[in-house]
Design goal:
about 35 residues, mainly alpha, 2 helices, XRE family transcriptional regulator
Length: about 35
């Protein structure tokens, strides 16, 4: 359900413009589960 919003958030994180630890943790968990 969240995938639609992730590309923008991932792009923001990659630019270092925003640190969202909760999102980063969820993203790492998603990568590990993929």
């Amino acid at each position: 359900a969240h995938f639609g919003v992730w590309p923008d958030k991932i792009s923001t994180i990659e630019r270092g413009a925003r640190r969202d630890d909760d999102f980063a943790n969820a993203y790492r968990q998603w990568l590990n589960a993929a």
